[in-house]
Amino acid sequence: MEREAESRDMDDQVDDQVGDQAADDWLDGETKVVEAPAHHGDDVRLWLRLLTCSTLVENEVRRRLREEFDSTLPRFDLLAQLERAHDGMVLGELSRRMMVSAGNLTALVDRLVASGHVSRTTSPADRRVQIIALTDFGREWFDKAAERHGDWLGMLFADLPPRERASLMAALAKLKQSIRRGLDSANGAGSRRD
Amino acid sequence: MEREAESRDMDDQVDDQVGDQAADDWLDGETKVVEAPAHHGDDVRLWLRLLTCSTLVENEVRRRLREEFDSTLPRFDLLAQLERAHDGMVLGELSRRMMVSAGNLTALVDRLVASGHVSRTTSPADRRVQIIALTDFGREWFDKAAERHGDWLGMLFADLPPRERASLMAALAKLKQSIRRGLDSANGAGSRRD
DNA sequence: TCGAATTATTTCAAGCATAAAGTTTCTTGG
DNA sequence: CCAAGAAACTTTATGCTTGAAATAATTCGA
Question: For chain A, how long is the longest CA-to-CA vector?
Fold first, then answer.
């Protein structure tokens, strides 16, 4: 078995000696010999490193939102999605973009309506549809928070050399493509529009 | 204000025309002129891209853990931490490694004790301390789950070209360093041992 | 047209996560 | 020795998150 429990924080101290031996255990074109338990050690390490970085950033952003704005990341995220949609956005679309379940949003939107940041309107065309939109107050609030949000990220990423930054952006784009393809092939090859 | 609400999913379609004009608004070595609201557009884009990737992976791993093992990511994470600690691990250490609050773990450990995956023992040396350890059953379970976990990641990352993979690993290491430094300088410069 | 299927959202139960306050136990300085 | 303080953990209140089931509205086919 693979030992993958390297503490998410120690991943750069861990000795990387897995050595992909699982080239391909095929005798001919049809018979697989050993059902080789390919280790995927590199994959796990990559994932843990990615996860560590996003957790660190996420926790800091959460902390700051709470301390400076007495708010939360989901609230900020939702307003951020709405910020460009000047005519509001349908709840389902919000759900897809934020990659969270619709059931989740019901309560979140409730709270944001209660605090005056967004409005919720039933679509006249289709009475099933809820349209969520920023209020003026919500927009003002978001503008302030977004500026600080940028500052925090700037601070966190300040020591990343430009070279690494560029290659990170490029590699993450490739990674995302790979993930999407992986999701498509594994699960139904249904149309991915999100 | 910066417009940063590019849907986390559309970030590679978005036209990147921010154009870092905020070089440095200094007249001499002492006086900052405009308190320039540096946009940090690149920082935000980098963050959103990172976040999208980890959310996609995380959601898929959660889904699979639930469907194939009727389990959750926090449960898996906790067992993964324990897997290497053959004499168990103190709850506080677990909390630090998993980057979650201790209060959170109390209930999570309760459930894992109830399901027979881990044991919880009060340290004889210090009766405040709780030692959490894998049971045999927990270890067997984890071994199976970890193998599948590796498979899933292998599938998701399969289409990532080796070149990008290498530069991603390297760049993420740098990124993590930058984040850590950012956290240290912003908040207290207290000793970071985690 | 009318009933079945589909779509959009809400409700529900359970689990995850946090910060702040509380409890128990240890440590330490006087 | 013994209080003050620190440390490890738990409790509490609140919010986020999910999947599954329920509800309501629309669409579509016969």
Answer: 68
CA distance A44 to A37: 14
Q: Indicate the residue type of B55.
A: T
The pLDDT profile of chain B, 194 residues, written as one tens digit per residue, is 444 545 555 444 443 333 344 444 444 445 555 556 677 888 999 999 999 999 999 999 999 999 999 999 999 999 999 999 999 999 999 999 999 999 999 999 999 999 999 999 999 999 999 999 999 999 999 999 999 999 999 999 999 999 999 999 999 999 999 999 998 887 654 444 44
Helix, coil or strand: residue B26: strand
**What's the token pair of residue B59?**
């959601």
Contact residues, chain A, for B151 at CB < 8 Å: 38, 40
CA distance B17 to B11: 13
Amino acid (1-letter code) at residue B9: D
Distance C14 C1' – A108 CA (angstroms)? 18
Angstrom distance (rounded) from CA A118 to CA A114: 8
CB-nearest partner of B47 from A82, A153, A171? A153
